[in-house]
Amino acid sequence: MNIAATYELPESFNGFASFGAPRREIPQISAAANDRGDVIAELPAAGMDEVVAALQLLEHSVQRCLSFEKVLPEAMLKTLGDINRVQSTLTLAGYFRGDARPALSRATQRQEAPLSAPSAPFHGLVGACPQMRRLYQSIEAAGTARANLLIVGETGTGKELVARAIHGCGLRANAPFIALNCAALPKDLIESELFGYQRGAFSGATSDHLGLFRAGEGGTLFLDEITEMSAETQSKLLRAIQERSIRPVGSTREQPVNVRVIASTNRDPKAALAEGRLRADLYYRLQAVVLTVPPLRARMADVPLLVEHFISLFNRRDGRSVEGVEQRALEALLIYRWPGNVRELSNAIEGAFTFGKGSLINCADLPPEVVAVDKLEAESKVANDPATELPTFADNERELISRALKNARGNKVLAAKRLQISRKKLYAKIAKYQIAEVA
User: What is the pLDDT of residue 386?
Assistant: First the structure.
């Protein structure tokens, strides 16, 4: 059933005042919502001031249709008063044909998009920069797919969190999620851990062992650092993925399995292929879906959000009430390049909780390498200050030629050879800088 509301300009309305425009008469404005939640609005064909006022009325119309607190952001109305008519028209067209209309169909469930609150974690992942928002979209798409996939990212970027987020977004969310770090187990144990074994298969096998493939039935199996797995085990893993069946160690029978495999590596897959660390057939099997997790240095704008997240986390864990980070300490955190990525940042904040006792984290609480980079940056700024006196190129060249002549005891042929210039050029430089003969 369609519902609609129509409004005319109230006598008390003074929507033009904030734009310094006199009150004008405008025609009525209508807004309607159909069964699908689409909102259809009719705006008056009037000047820019009238359109802005009409949009304010549209707010009230849509509120009546959908019982929705806020539709058009106040900031947009203010911005429209400051830009020209063409820009405003494009902005309004984008508003009505872009994200607003599908969002209104969900207005009664939620007022903002899932990522509109930048500090809200996305399945445990924290970040609001464009790279992370694109990653969140890829995670949601991968979650609903059935294909096995590969996650690529440096150590400490949160590859397992990404895998858990994919699992949580998908149809297998209520089934087991099982993670295995392939670098943590000896090569001869990974196979039995993955595929299981039968009693008596080897010395010490006193009972049957399911293995991770069967333990994760219906769910997700995450294989971290797959490039650390031997080529032989990679071959058996490929067969298990293709045939959807495994053969436990010591058994002669295939057993069907239903598990989604998500693999990860901290290496460049192409380089791993060239080095023989990753089988080509396994890589091409996983290549259908590849997600890349950005390093922390590529999204430094997220550092304050991550710091806030970790402070909140450790406050709850340790029963502390740390309020934040001093400005100087935050600057140090933003300058440091974080080779260990988010894990290193987490460890730095955790260490600050251990050594710092104040309500604010300061530089003394941070790891020495973080503060040292901050000091080097400060020294670099001083060195790059235009007011700082630096020797000119001519001064340096004069000094260099003088030292070469002194070391060669006045022998110009030898000095030219050491300077890697011609003797003729050396004579010209000596004349130019009026360098005295060396006795």
Answer: 53
